[in-house]
Amino acid sequence: EDTGIQTAQDSRFFGISAGFDSFSNKGKELVVQYQAKYEKDVECGGGYLKVGPKMDDLAAFGDPTPYNIMFGPDKCGYTKRTHLIFSYKGKNVLKKQDLPYKQEGEGTSHVYRLVLKPDNTVRVEIDEEKVYEGSLKEDWEVLK
């Protein structure tokens, strides 16, 4: 079933969570895709998705919540980017260079797609436009 969240208050944390069965993408592509729409411009906030370990209490979802992948738009002041952060050996590892922020334009929906491939390469698309394709080993401080 599709679910969404619409917020009405600025400068406040909002979140929804859903559990799913454990899985492995060993030898397969992992595709994570979702849609975000900002009804108005935000001064500081994000519309990202976290994929992480199973939680016993989904109501406890918030910040900080452990995750394996955090992906999506984030803006605070003049800093605008699309996050793609992987948790590796207990540390959250940001991409060495920011991915473009495409959430400009109030009221416009954007589709975010992440494809993580078995050869440790990554592809990121926003609105079906490739904004990044490269290697986990070269563009994140992981696998070293």
Topology:
Elements lengths: L29 E8 L6 E3 L2 E3 L17 E8 L2 E10 L2 E4 L14 E8 L4 E6 L2 E7 H4 L5
Antiparallel strand pairs: 1-7, 2-4, 3-4, 4-5, 5-6, 7-8, 8-9
Overview of the structural elements:
It is a single chain. With 144 residues, this protein is mainly β. It is built from 1 helix and 9 strands; from the N terminus they run βββββββββα. It has one helix at residues 136-139, and strands at residues 30-37, 44-46, 49-51, 69-76, 79-88, 91-94, 109-116, 121-126, 129-135. Strands 2, 3, 4, 5 and 6 form a 5-stranded antiparallel beta sheet that branches. A 4-stranded antiparallel beta sheet has the order 1-7-8-9. The longest helix is centred in the C-terminal third of the chain and has 4 residues, at 136-139. The model has no long low-confidence stretch (mean pLDDT 84).
Mean pLDDT across all residues, rounded?
A: 84
Any idea what the radius of gyration is?
Answer: 15 Å
The biggest sheet amounts to:
5 strands, antiparallel
| Strand segment count | 9
What is the count of helical runs? 1
List keywords for this structure.
five-stranded antiparallel sheet; 144 residues; single chain; 40% strand; mainly beta
